[in-house]
Automatic annotation (TrEMBL):
Domain of life of the source: Eukaryota
SMART domains, per the entry: MYSc
Residues spanning the signal sequence: none
Cellular component terms (Gene Ontology): cytoplasm; membrane; myosin complex
Name of the protein in its database record: Myosin motor domain-containing protein
Domain Myosin motor, residue spans: 3-262
Region of interest (Disordered), ranges: 130-162
Positions of ATP binding: G107, E108, S109, G110, A111, G112, K113, T114
Biased composition (Low complexity): 152-161
Native organism: Entomoneis paludosa
Keywords, ordered alphabetically: Actin-binding, ATP-binding, Motor protein, Myosin, Nucleotide-binding
Length: 262
């Protein structure tokens, strides 16, 4: 029988059947994330998983990989695979190691790429604001089945800087003009985007955590380049699909806004 592992480099036999079995088995266990070396594979669960994106979990990964991180190779192995390890490791490499970082998110339509990017952005924002060591309202106290990124926004709004909040608030705007409902995905991105987060080195005096002085950096700005927009969807689309969200949002707006626009 096949084995179940957190990191697929530990598979005794690395072939398609073993990989698919491992991903499926972890998915059934409510564990959507699996490592393959430095890569984190995400299987879209299409449901809310209690505790997966909680404040405690965000704090746990930030502390383990950034603020209280050791040089031990066992640090990552002691953590369950999670997208938070990607964002936390990127922040550590940028702030502490002083090396530019890149996060590449790729996958099939409906795989959860858009949500994964937003989750990473929110986690980086919470790490840089020092919220990893503060008590916050836990997003899992909310009873509705919201997406992880929408739920996380309730904890970032009150504490983040204006620049961070503007970067986070740009997502709904881009999605309105570039996302649409398809047969496979109700919020499918019909364009590609390249996001650059610009950080500045923080004053070491302000970069103190738990009594220890640590290098830190703060988000100073952001640039976003969009490309490959599916322009044909503006005038036509396949059956059971829709055009871009913005058109339906305009039609659903109140009469005052419609009169102002038209």
């Amino acid at each position: 029988s096949f084995e179940i592992v957190e990191d697929m480099v530990d598979l005794a036999f690395l072939h398609e059947a073993a990989i698919l079995y491992n991903l499926k088995a972890r998915h059934v266990q409510g564990k959507p994330y699996t490592r393959t070396g430095d890569i984190v594979i995400a299987c879209n669960p299409y449901q809310w998983l209690h505790g997966l994106y909680s404040t405690a979990n965000r704090r746990h990964y930030a502390n383990a990989l950034v603020w209280k991180a050791s040089n031990s190779l066992n640090t990552l192995a002691s953590l369950d695979p999670h997208i938070y390890e990607v964002s936390a490791a990127a922040y550590r490499g940028l702030a502490i190691d002083g090396v530019d970082q890149s996060i590449l998110v790729s996958g099939e339509s409906g795989a959860g790429k858009t949500e994964s990017v937003k989750i990473c952005l929110h986690h980086i924002a919470s790490v840089q604001e020092g919220t990893a060591g503060q008590d916050e309202h836990d997003i899992d106290n909310d009873s509705d089945n919201r997406s992880p990124s929408k739920a996380t926004s309730t904890t970032t709004t009150s504490s983040t800087s204006p620049i961070v909040q503007r970067v986070l608030d740009s997502n709904p705007l881009l999605e309105a003009f570039g996302n649409a409902q398809t047969v496979r995905n109700d919020n499918s991105s019909r364009f590609g985007k390249f996001i650059q987060l610009q950080f500045d080195v923080e004053d070491p005096v302000n970069a103190i955590y738990a009594g220890h002085q640590l290098p830190s950096c703060v988000l100073a700005g952001s640039k976003c380049e969009v490309y490959l927009l599916e322009k044909s969807r503006v005038v036509e689309h396949e059956p059971e699909e829709r055009t871009y969200h913005i058109f339906y949002q305009l039609l659903a707006s109140n009469n005052e806004i419609k009169e102002e626009i038209w």
